[in-house]
Automatic annotation (TrEMBL):
A GO CC term assigned to this protein in UniProt: photosystem II
PANTHER family according to UniProt: PHOTOSYSTEM II STABILITY/ASSEMBLY FACTOR HCF136, CHLOROPLASTIC (PTHR47199), PHOTOSYSTEM II STABILITY_ASSEMBLY FACTOR HCF136, CHLOROPLASTIC (PTHR47199:SF2)
Superkingdom classification of source: Bacteria
Keywords: Photosynthesis, Photosystem II
CDD domains on file: Sialidase_non-viral
Stated name of the protein: Photosynthesis system II assembly factor Ycf48/Hcf136-like domain-containing protein
Residues in Photosynthesis system II assembly factor Ycf48/Hcf136-like domain copies: 187-308
A biological-process GO annotation: photosynthesis
Pfam families reported in the protein's UniProt record: PSII_BNR
UniProt-listed SUPFAM superfamilies: Sialidases
Length: 384
């Protein structure tokens, strides 16, 4: 049986909070000011060259510096606040504050910084193969890479979204809302993303914010109207399991799509607090997790739920399915929980790191990579 042990001391950054009381806020919920249910037109849709040039010029004039200034390259970036991590083939890619992206080609033993075109914080990252991936985060930023994270290009930001809404406004109320959004600036954070393949993917966030692409991010269609979420509750996580798509969010919001994302209908939720994410087992089992150590398991596509005893009081911020079928959960205090029965029960890893944590990934050699407010921690695999 594979277990894990800490591999060296955690990298620490100056000025980092000593506790993880607001991990989820640090991971994306900074600037939740986009409260609108209006339908946005597709961003990136066909325009004449003159229209495109005019829009680009206007957006550049209003863009905050962090949207137009590349991330600063610094040796100190290895100790930055890192909010998400993912595998890209044999490589590890971590993203975090100020547009920082770190790469590791030795299973997390060492890291180097890659350049990005923005200084906006990045809260989510996913790869669909060794080369193709996306990162999303604050100010409505979406980045894409086609070389395993070495270089990135911006596909979307909050200014483009606000301008698209303004172009679509057809009533005085909609026009007023669009004008306010433009005046507020790009304050619409994306909190998570999910791609099924190189073409089809979703980005999601505050106030039911949801976009869909079917061309790898060249264009984005507003998708919030496809979610039966009349209160516009924040969306925190999306994953696929057993042929369906699932969304989770604040106040116990839980949705399922059985038609490839065409519609998302609410499921009866066993909990009224916020869910921060979900992880799927090999047989389509689901574990949803969130505030105050809460987790629930379902083996029937969310029709029924069983409470999972985690033994935690701190919120659970991340989950991952490991290569051997083990499911892992991560608390904001750095507790790692492992399940070898597809999520029905979990046990705490004795050598869990003690650091405010935001994300969990697995390296090619089986090691666990924990990213958080004090940098990145590697838990080396051992066999017992």
């Amino acid at each position: 049986m594979t277990t894990f042990k800490q591999d060296g001391a955690a990298r620490r950054g100056a000025g980092i909070p000593a506790t993880g009381t607001a991990i989820r806020a640090a991971a994306g919920a900074l600037a939740l000011a986009m409260a609108t249910a209006a339908l946005w037109p597709a961003v990136g849709a066909a325009e004449t060259p003159a229209q495109a040039a005019s829009a680009a010029s206007a957006a550049a004039a209003r863009a905050p510096a962090v949207l137009t200034t590349p991330a600063i390259l610094s040796a100190k970036s290895r100790a930055a606040v890192m909010l998400a991590a993912a595998r890209a083939g044999e490589r590890l890619v971590a993203v975090g504050e100020r547009g920082i992206v770190l790469l590791s080609d030795d299973n997390g033993a060492s890291w180097r910084q890659a350049g990005t075109p923005v200084q906006a914080s990045l809260a989510a990252v996913q790869f669909v193969d060794a080369k193709t991936g996306w990162a999303a985060g604050h100010l409505g930023v979406v980045l894409r890479t086609d070389d395993g994270g070495q270089t990135w290009r911006k596909q979307l930001d909050g200014l483009q979204a606000a301008d698209a809404m303004a172009r679509a406004a057809a009533t005085p109320q909609a026009q007023a809302e669009a004008a306010q959004l433009q005046a507020d600036g790009p304050d619409k954070p994306f909190l998570d993303l999910y791609f099924a393949d190189r073409d089809t993917g979703y980005i999601l966030g505050a106030y039911n914010l949801l976009f869909r692409t079917t061309d790898g991010g060249k264009t984005w269609q507003p998708w919030n109207a496809h979610v039966n979420n009349p209160k516009n509750l924040h969306l925190y996580g999306m994953r696929a399991a057993g042929g369906a798509l699932y969304l989770v969010g604040e106040q116990g919001s839980l949705f399922r799509s059985a038609d490839n994302g065409a519609s998302f209908e609410p499921l009866a939720s066993p909990y009224k607090g916020s869910y921060f994410g979900l992880v799927a087992g090999r047989g389509g089992e689901l574990v949803i997790y969130g505030l105050r150590g809460t987790a629930y398991w379902s083996g029937d596509q969310g029709r029924n739920w069983q409470k999972v005893e985690t033994g935690l009081e701190q919120s659970i911020t991340a989950g991952a399915a490991l290569a051997d079928g083990t499911l892992a959960l991560l608390s904001q205090g750095g507790d790692v929980l492992l399940s070898r029965d597809q999520g029905r029960t979990f046990a705490r890893l004795p050598d869990s790191p003690s650091l405010p944590a935001a994300s969990l990934a697995q390296a090619a050699d089986g090691a666990l990579i924990v990213a958080g407010l004090r940098g990145i921690k590697r838990l080396a695999p051992t066999t017992k």
